[in-house]
Amino acid sequence: MSESEKGSGTGRPRILVGVDGSKDSLRAVRYAMNEALASGADLWVVHVVDDTDTVSGLWELVLTPEKLRLAGEAKIAEALDLLSTEGFPADRVTSDVLIGRPRVVLADLSDKADLMVVGRRSLTGLERMFVGSTSVAVVVHAGCPVIVISAASTPHKTGGLRTVAVAVSTWPIDESALEWGASEAMLRQARLRVVHVVPETLGIEGADFVSAATTDLNHQLSPLRGKHPDLDVELEVLLGDPVDALVGVSREVDLLILGVHHDRAALGGSIRGVLAHAHCPVGLTR
Question: 191 with 64: CB under 8 angstroms?
């Protein structure tokens, strides 16, 4: 996209981070800050006041847009305080409090960002498959890559494993996800782990599919290896349930990147399952 459509107007890339005052969103702010420090990007911190929140509490206290905006400014202030405490340059941060449906507003703003980071609230059991609807909806409609992080599933500091993973299909390989993974790995001085999962439902023929997929993917990875000769690119073809296998991979990497099909109006069950149970931040790109 053109300079007017992407970036912060400073010539530097821009990372959009959505905050709502939760631990998960503050986790997203910290993650976005580290990403900005590594890439030289500016930060754009945004809180969206949900215009459907007109009633609050047992006493049905009617909240005016002004009261909601003031509450949003307090949440922004908390995020800015965190950045200030961590020493992130104030002149590389902008912030906004906007009114609307969070999922719609953030998706629209993503067209003006190079990357978006959002927190996803997770609970336990079946609830984990249905929460985080805002972050899931944002991913579906975002105009830039999105990283989703949850303090519940990733309470520890990320970045110490020095490995970025990208999950790919055999054909056609997702070049946008692969290039993003390579970029993230080089920023972190990490290795790139390219993962493909052959469904275990293939039964006894699964081993043959693993062998064929390994040969095919090694061939498709040749241009990437040639383009980035100093990047350690490791291919791993697994046999098993895709969600279980990728959740297992997420225990061993700093970031797991998944490609989202351009023609999908909703996230598939496998991607939602990985988002719900991953042990590391999850990046999604179209």
Answer: no
